[in-house]
Amino acid sequence: MRLCIDYRELNKVTVKNRYPLPRIDDLFDQLQGATVFSNIDLQSGYHQLRIRDSDIPKTAFRSRYGHYEFIVMSFGLTNAPAVFMDLMNRVFKDFLDSFVIVFIDDILIYSKTEAEHEEHLRQVLETLRANRLYAKFSKCEFLLKKVSFLGHVMSSEGVSMDPTKIEAVTNWPRPSNVSEIRSFLGLAGYYRRFVEDFSRIASPLTQLTRKGTPFVWSPACESSFQELKQKLVTAPVLTVPNGSGSFVIYSDASKKGLGCMLMQQGRVVAYASRQLKSHEQNYPTHDLELAAVVFALKIWRHYLYGEKIQIFTDHKSLKYFFTQNELNMRQRRWLELVKDYDCEILYHPGKANVVADALSRKVAHSAALITKQAPLLRDFERAEIAVSVGEVTSQLAQLSVQPTLRQRIVVAQLNDPYLVEKRRLVETGQGSQFSIYYAPWKYEMYQDLRSVYWWRNMKREVADFVSRCLVCQQVKAPRQRPAGLLQSLSVPG
């Protein structure tokens, strides 16, 4: 049980401490190469910090047992997290970014070997003793290969979601009001870096949270709710980027949002996406695709500065962006930003070609890429690439590209008796009585054919045929030499 007082009125008049709390995803970037972990949780951390004597009366509260004042930091005070974070950073400043991660009262020690970890652990415990900070032994974990920290699970393979948090999401009942939707999106959004196209999937739910929007739980909302839960259950293990090696970005844009994926050495580092702002919905396709590239560079700039970057996009004209002669003001601003990075924009006609090329150049990671990255496996299925994984530990991936549905329809149309008969009638009608002197006007040919035959969309197909007919285009009136002046002929003798 933890005693927490309602200090809302006191917090309103308190001068806020702006000491920054660390970004959680930045903390995890330090774990590259770590294989051994220990987790230390302080015993009622706030209560180990004394309050200045002059401020003790401000913490007063009353109960049926009498009037009390806190002499140590209480839960519920607005400056408590910032003050305690400042204390922990000063205590462990020599170890931060080396083998210690601190987030308020949680301490994570990480090392590459067990021998090295024992020395690191000894230094941390001695530091706690020297500063008279006490840990709760029942909540501490030592010499682990996999550890849960801040809602994530860390291991030598990378960072994944905490199974206990996933269970809370999967068991979440259907929201019945806006407040419950915000609660669900808050928990799901904490893990958005694990979910591809998070903003697109959550769009129907976020629209319900807008001011003035009536709460109507539509089939689209139900589909979004269930898909988000399924995506979180099948979220992949994300790799921790190392300091050496180039990055690969896959970016895409639509009329609803921007999405991108960051990879290194054939493994996914993070996903990112967002919905379009109102003015961005008016952007042309070229600018939208470029906006997705800029979005990726901005959000992952702490990874990408000074590194070699390959950016894949399915918008072909974007590869000529650096040599484009005419740019509007928005594109010029973006060009200045993109020039700060050592990047190369490459075109790919589809996701299947990109993944096949990536696998061909990164053989060592091909099996892991298919078996461990669930969103990429779904990309294979959408691209109609058959994937088979062996049961042996080596896990081989065999890929075979099959014709798409559109391609199979085109081939089948060539031998369809109904379509063949229609083509014969139109081609025959061109050089027969149904074409009045090669039918310079498609309307006349259509009327003549219609008197004997009819089929669905007949007028449009006749017009398309005439527009592609070389003879018909040559004898059309606009193609002929202009007629001379009309003059009356003289009547002979």
From TrEMBL:
<keyword id="KW-0808">Transferase</keyword>
<keyword id="KW-0255">Endonuclease</keyword>
<dbReference type="Pfam" id="PF17921">
    <property type="entry name" value="Integrase_H2C2"/>
</dbReference>
<dbReference type="GO" id="GO:0016787">
    <property type="term" value="F:hydrolase activity"/>
</dbReference>
<dbReference type="Pfam" id="PF17917">
    <property type="entry name" value="RT_RNaseH"/>
</dbReference>
<keyword id="KW-0695">RNA-directed DNA polymerase</keyword>
<keyword id="KW-0378">Hydrolase</keyword>
<protein>
    <submittedName>
        <fullName>Pol protein</fullName>
    </submittedName>
</protein>
<dbReference type="InterPro" id="IPR043502">
    <property type="entry name" value="DNA/RNA_pol_sf"/>
</dbReference>
<dbReference type="InterPro" id="IPR041588">
    <property type="entry name" value="Integrase_H2C2"/>
</dbReference>
<dbReference type="GO" id="GO:0003964">
    <property type="term" value="F:RNA-directed DNA polymerase activity"/>
</dbReference>
<feature type="domain" description="Reverse transcriptase">
    <location>
        <begin position="1"/>
        <end position="154"/>
    </location>
</feature>
<dbReference type="Pfam" id="PF00078">
    <property type="entry name" value="RVT_1"/>
</dbReference>
<dbReference type="InterPro" id="IPR000477">
    <property type="entry name" value="RT_dom"/>
</dbReference>
<dbReference type="InterPro" id="IPR043128">
    <property type="entry name" value="Rev_trsase/Diguanyl_cyclase"/>
</dbReference>
<dbReference type="GO" id="GO:0004519">
    <property type="term" value="F:endonuclease activity"/>
</dbReference>
<dbReference type="InterPro" id="IPR041373">
    <property type="entry name" value="RT_RNaseH"/>
</dbReference>
<keyword id="KW-0548">Nucleotidyltransferase</keyword>
<keyword id="KW-0540">Nuclease</keyword>
<dbReference type="InterPro" id="IPR050951">
    <property type="entry name" value="Retrovirus_Pol_polyprotein"/>
</dbReference>
